[in-house]
Amino acid sequence: MKLMINMSPIIIIFLYFMYSIYASPKLKNFVSLIFLQGFSMLFDFAEWLKLVTRVCVVLSHFLGRMCVVAIFVISVIALTNEISIVFGYEIFSKSDQIAKIISLIEEKKLPWIAATAIIAATVALGHFRTLDLAIEKYQEEQKEKLEIKIKKLKSILK
Questions:
Q1: How far apart are CA 86 and CA 112, in angstroms?
Q2: Assessment of whether the complete model's pTM goes beyond 0.85
């Protein structure tokens, strides 16, 4: 069995030394310009992809918050209506729109499910705050990493 050596790194190093010794300054500038354009296009695509991902995350986060708030409001209205009926008052029964909203929950014959939904909604709102803090921490870490990479690239290019 013969020992095989991969010659590609040696060839690349040889070509680099030949290029650095014999290439004209115009060719060197042209090649560096091509590499810089290629890397900038790669970084621009990565930034665009990051922006699209960020927009999708923000939109879904916003829609999730709005759904949780809507569940919370409907549950509070239904629970308030049930409690007011127990005491002989009909607060929301006079309004047709609110009565339709309340009927969404009361048609199931389980009006006290509203109390459970209120608790679940408040827990979800608390978790959203925790998620906000985690997102801010992640963004700061990514920003620091990117700044370090930019400093390294600037030092290499100089």
A1: 13
A2: no
